[in-house]
Amino acid sequence: MKIGCVCGAVIPDQTDFLSFKAHLVADRDWEDFVDSSGSKKRIDSSYVRLCYQCIQCGRLYVEDASRSLHAFTPEGHEVQVLGSSRGSDWRAPLIGSWNDKPFSGQAKGHLWCDAEGGTSAKFDDWSQLERSYQVLFVQLRKQDRLRSALLRKNGKDVHVWAPDA
Length: 165
Ligand SMILES: [Zn+2]
Prior knowledge:
Layout: E1 2-4, E2 10-12, E3 21-25, H1 30-36, E4 48-53, E5 60-63, E6 69-72, E7 92-98, E8 109-113, E9 119-123, H2 126-142, E10 146-153, E11 156-161
Parallel strand pairs: 7-10
Antiparallel strand pairs: 1-2, 3-4, 4-5, 5-6, 7-8, 8-9, 10-11
Bound molecules: zinc ion (ZN).
């Protein structure tokens, strides 16, 4: 999904862990939401509405009960309000991927992580990708900045890490 902001910017919603998106539960729904959501694995999304903030102009988009988006403009100042409560200490996923036969124009390898200022790199050499992944993994683990890590090669998991695994 993409939202076209009034200012002309596009607000994309095509990946997880967006810094400009939040899930809102009305105070009048809060107790029902808590009761019906048994655990974090089973969230009752019928109570959850989405919010987005345009990173260009700061406009806030909030879903009403019928899932229509309404825009609100910031008053005199621009501040990003929908980021993690942990701020820059947010734990991010680390993802490395390799494909011997990439789509045309694409690199064979990618390394991506949104922690510590962000990493987004392309690789044409598997061993370089693997080494960079391992270095970043060790560094971010030491800093307690990872929620998960995954390195895949041609569709197969080479390395998988999760805190409770
Ligand atoms: Zn905007």
